[in-house]
Amino acid sequence: MGTELDLPVGDPGEMRRKAWLLGLDCEHLLGMARDLAALVEAMEYECRAAQRFREEVRGDRVYLEGVVDELREVQRSMLREAGRVEDADALIARAARIAALAAI
Asked: Counting beta carbons within 10 angstroms of the beta carbon of residue 87, is it exposed (0 to 12), middle (13 to 18) or buried (19 or more)?
């Protein structure tokens, strides 16, 4: 999972690919959070420290789920923007065809 943000401005195919990768990262994060929470819940230790640790991990899982929700919104936005770029490219191509016909 990368931490660098390299946005593919103006390339709808690359925008869609990056959105897909972001979705994979989201699934990976959620899987790790759920696996960790399951391990902690299965702990056999029973004391105040163990209970605090479980509560902390539960809170971290909930926080991470919120972060993933935000990342998924970014993913949806990237896909919407890729569609807008494609629409703009189609309009530019159409205008170029019309201009070429008008020059004849």
From this structure: exposed
